[in-house]
């Protein structure tokens, strides 16, 4: 029997060793100071433009390699972010034709540039990875021909995909991933079903997704469950949308809730996208990030990360919790940032209990400020709930959510502040006690966070704990920016008929469509 145990131990030893390994990840967040019209350019001209961007990427890769970085992630649309007025026909010249990776005989474009046609950008990326002996994750455009025997073939005879490619430290193509959930990108196509670009490295198993894919069941939740991937590479061009979808806060909460390493590379485009990149881990205090900031960056950040192996994820349903009686029965209805319809109550006292409901779901808050508040600055806090009754029957994947939020407002206008007035006393915006609870939510998938104000933006806070839809601070917290319990209703995760924010995507797309096509 001892012999059998010994054999089993050695058979499992590689997996055990792999699970204990660490790797150093890095993300690069470029700044695009201005954009010019894409227009109609030749393939040669398009390749030259992208190679000019890749020359900058090569410098970043060389520097990162010298610092011991194992895998380096660049943002979504990084090769064409300097261009505006993107059209389906115009982007064609910027698309490679990327083959599916061959695991048996990996293709190294740097060594075999002519093995496949129209792969000039793949060759350049491969050579950067090989020269610097580093894994690279770069977002590019892929063009795949189709014909009329394919009922879904576009009118112009080609599929165009928003695509991540991953190249190994030997320069081999090891992963190709097509973005599934497009965010107002009419020049790209969506694959019929979600893809899973899983690949193995000497330092762990990885997969990549793109931007809006992080929000959906088939491209995140199913990827993690079915393929046991704990390291997600995440090129994105993320629109910070307060109060729920601020890049660093939302992405960090996902990493913590799913027990994954999320390696997120965003981009900064003047007057358009404010950035917000990071390397987030399940550990409460283990992360590094660049929150939204108008100042240029053009730098990378790196962090040594533990390979999690096949870590466990649990989303148990919360217990039935009674909704406490509210100190303030005056509920206000408002729409935040033109997107989020909420019901809210003000915190009228310096300590107390408030609650607010919409349909069958409720949020409650037990609170105490660190001192008696003044009224000179007209700053107060609200507890708000987001929940809508309508179900979007046209989208089987769903964009539904239920959320509780605590945030400061001014002059009783239901709009979360992004900065504080100079000179406001800390006691007006700091809490000695804070426990926020989600009641009767139709999901067990909760992504909570608490953030605090700093001199220019916000900081991730770690002085709190979460238990199945209830968050509570573990010590006094100064200058609270917001506290959020974000509940995501994946398909089949709800048991009631009430879903949330079915029209968010449509509204948001309408709001930004003009900007995207400028």
Automatic annotation (TrEMBL):
InterPro entries per record: Biotinidase/VNN (IPR040154), C-N_Hydrolase (IPR003010), C-N_Hydrolase_sf (IPR036526), Vanin_C (IPR043957)
Entry-linked Pfam families: CN_hydrolase, Vanin_C
Record SUPFAM superfamilies: Carbon-nitrogen hydrolase
Superkingdom of the organism of origin: Eukaryota
Single GO molecular function: hydrolase activity
Alphabetic keyword roster: Hydrolase, Membrane, Signal, Transmembrane, Transmembrane helix
Span of the signal peptide: 1-19
Domain CN hydrolase: 28-307
Transmembrane feature ranges: 495-512
Family: Belongs to the carbon-nitrogen hydrolase superfamily. BTD/VNN family.
Name of the protein: CN hydrolase domain-containing protein
Organism from which the protein derives: Octopus bimaculoides (California two-spotted octopus)
